[in-house]
Amino acid sequence: MKKISVVILAGLLSLSSFCQNEITLDFGLLQNGSQLVLDSVLIENQTSGSDTIIYDIQDGLVIDFITKVDDISNLNLNKLTVNQNYPNPCSEGTIVEAYIPGQEVSIKLYDTTGKLLTTKTYRTGRGYQIFGITPGNSGQYILKISCKGQEESIVITSNSNNKNTAEISWNGETDFIQPKSTKAESFTYYHGDILEFTGYVTACQTAASTSFTDSPIESQTYDFDFTYITEIQPDAALVGEITTTETSIDWNWTSVPDALGYKYNFVEDYETALDNALINNFSQTELTAGTNYKLFVWAYNDCGSSFSTELIKATTALPLTQAEIDLILSGASTVAMEVMNICEQPDSIILRTLSTNVIVGEENLSHLTDRMKKTVTGIGVGIAAPQVGINRRIIWVQRYDIGSVIHPWGLYFNPRIVNYSDTVALRSDGCLSVPDACETECNITGNSYRALWIDVEYYLADGTYVIERINQQYTAHIFQHEIDHLDGIMFFDRQVEENPEKFTVVNGDSYEGLPVID
């Protein structure tokens, strides 16, 4: 079941008369097969008649849910109400909550001498709204909110030591001072209103829909019934037995009933996929040993294609070369190794080369990992084998998600990130392979965009396979940094703004008391 969530927010309009609450609505669908997904959900307020929302299933949705504790009939929907601002006093900015009875609202900020500092006019629509106010230097300010001939004023106290420019923002704007909201500008839901929900899917190249009405007051799941649709694209294939050598992979997937054929591609792009007819296998040759490869497969029929099936497999790893062994044994296990410098040759070639898997348990690996740990201890929180001249997939990570005082080190072989959060943060970063002189020479800044959590798979020294979710941002960052080294990626490659259609960028957690990733 594909679920989407709608959060309905109860506006706190008056401390004595209103309460704040949230309910979450999940949407799924009932169907024949597993290939239908909700393209969108249309939500219409049948009571007010004018409020309409098209719901994008990739984002959350906040709807004003205004309700009175004692008697909803006493609510004056035509009265401008300013509830409160918090924090007060403020240093960086404050939030002002207000109920807006009309379509347009004017907001003006004055200092105590009566000087107008800034003004904004918004077409918010009727309902509970949130505004962000950055007043400026330390002192008191007057905020005036006007709508439909009504005016309300509040006093804002600032204790800021910064000479900030006074600013006003609204949570309908993308530059609102809080994380971006997906609140629709014109949709307000009052307790007792009748909402009509219409779910849309695409089946056999044709749009189809199912509707129902309700007045939700508590969290629940709604399922759109699409069982009447019988003509549908085929189910996705399942992963079959996959065999490998050092230079080849034989991919296999299960046959799918009602499929007229299969297509495959090495990237998840159906439009450029190659047709394999009804053959449910494919062989790749001349591959690199110890390297992960992917194949995407789609079943298709006259109605369209299935979801993609992702097949992932690594070619068989090669033993350590004599040159690698000589470097590993060039010092005792208690002796640190030389760290590669991205600003020097041939170090940069090694750091930019894709590393290959190792044979877990192979002789000399423990000697290498002992030296790697000796190299990083006391000066960093993680290290990857390419940083000491060995292009193999081995990393050490200090686990800040384990232990409150002493954070243990973890050793991981052939690690791979299998899933990233769709929310990233711009975080402080650094690298043992980017020393201070290199940073100055190349004007490298210490930050990078990182997922807030990851799913990572790896092998332990005893050969145990593990897949785990790393939820703590700092530890997830370390894993991402070190695994990037295995793929020839440096932290400053992650400074490019992420695709806003795929990622949400938020502020990272505090680094207070934590070392820079290094």
List the helices and strands and how they pair.
Blueprint: E1 4-9, E2 22-30, E3 40-45, E4 52-56, E5 62-66, E6 81-86, E7 94-100, E8 105-111, E9 116-122, E10 127-134, E11 139-147, E12 150-158, E13 167-170, E14 188-190, E15 195-203, E16 206-214, E17 220-225, E18 243-244, E19 249-252, E20 261-265, E21 274-275, E22 281-284, E23 292-301, E24 304-305, E25 309-314, H1 322-328, H2 347-351, H3 365-376, E26 382-384, E27 394-398, E28 409-420, E29 423-428, H4 436-442, E30 447-451, E31 454-459, E32 465-470, H5 473-486, E33 504-507
Parallel strand pairs: 1-5, 2-17, 5-14, 29-33
Antiparallel strand pairs: 1-2, 3-4, 3-15, 6-7, 7-10, 8-9, 8-11, 10-13, 11-12, 15-16, 18-19, 19-22, 20-21, 20-23, 23-24, 23-25, 26-27, 27-28, 28-31, 29-30, 31-32
